User: Which sequence fits this backbone?
């Protein structure tokens, strides 16, 4: 499949940098909300990845361009039909953890400043960011300084997920519905993050209409642990795939290629 390059911005009027622009101008707001509503369910992966591609110069960064639609490698997935998630530790201008959840052929993404917790009494802020390509799930390395997201990226956890009590047999459409409604109830099957979590969209907390803030909260289950006794982010300091520290990744080659 050929993906159209970012030749025009007339359809996407969402602010380029969510930090500086809170809302679109009056004249464009109508089309933004229409696009936003539509993007939740009907846009192709190529359409959803336009913002990701617009923000990056692939001549300079080794991040995947998302320009090729790679078939899911069934041999690499524990269960071929289960959607995937990834968490990347990202030492950019501020250290954070990027949570990405596969819905509708892209990785819906949130920057979680403090990372996930296994403690049900802890609510972790998760700021929505642009959708990422599925190929990003194996990206570990460095993004050059001065480029968007410049810094070190570690694969911190990955695996598959399920929707808890799915209203629909199809996990993807259940996930999409819950995403649209702003409340995902997810069971993570990761190496480090396990069990049931809620990801809930909130009003305020620094978010905007285009990039709302969410909260990531552990549900009480057998995998729940008090943060004081067992903090996931301090327990696991190395890459889930290469066993490297952040320093080792930053000193290594720009990109680590998955052996898959
Ligand atoms: Mn990031």
Assistant:
């Amino acid at each position: 499949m050929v993906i159209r390059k970012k030749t025009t911005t007339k359809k996407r009027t969402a602010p380029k940098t969510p930090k500086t622009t809170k809302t679109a101008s009056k004249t464009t707001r109508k089309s933004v909300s229409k696009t936003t509503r539509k993007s939740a369910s009907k846009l192709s992966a190529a359409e959803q990845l336009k913002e990701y591609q617009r923000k990056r110069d692939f001549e300079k960064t080794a991040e995947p361009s998302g320009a090729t639609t790679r078939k899911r490698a069934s041999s690499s997935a524990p269960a071929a039909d289960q959607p995937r998630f990834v968490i990347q530790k990202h030492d950019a201008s501020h250290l954070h953890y990027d949570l990405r959840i596969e819905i509708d052929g892209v990785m819906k993404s949130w920057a979680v400043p403090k990372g996930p917790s296994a403690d049900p009494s802890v609510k972790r802020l998760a700021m929505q960011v642009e959708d990422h390509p599925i190929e990003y799930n194996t990206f570990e390395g460095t993004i050059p300084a001065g480029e968007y997201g410049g810094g070190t990226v570690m694969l911190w956890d990955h695996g598959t997920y399920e929707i808890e009590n799915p209203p629909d047999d199809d996990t993807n459409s259940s996930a999409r519905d819950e995403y649209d409604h702003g409340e995902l109830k997810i069971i993570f099957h990761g190496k480090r993050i396990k069990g049931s979590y809620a990801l809930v969209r909130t009003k305020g907390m620094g978010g905007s209409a285009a990039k709302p803030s969410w909260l990531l909260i552990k549900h009480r289950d057998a995998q729940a642990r008090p943060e004081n006794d067992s903090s996931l982010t301090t327990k696991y300091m190395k890459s889930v795939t290469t066993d490297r520290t952040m320093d080792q990744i930053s000193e290594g080659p720009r990109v680590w290629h998955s052996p898959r």
Observations:
- The chain is about 15% helix and 30% strand.
- The pocket of manganese (II) ion is lined by residues 90, 92, 96, 98, 111, 149 (CB under 6 Å).
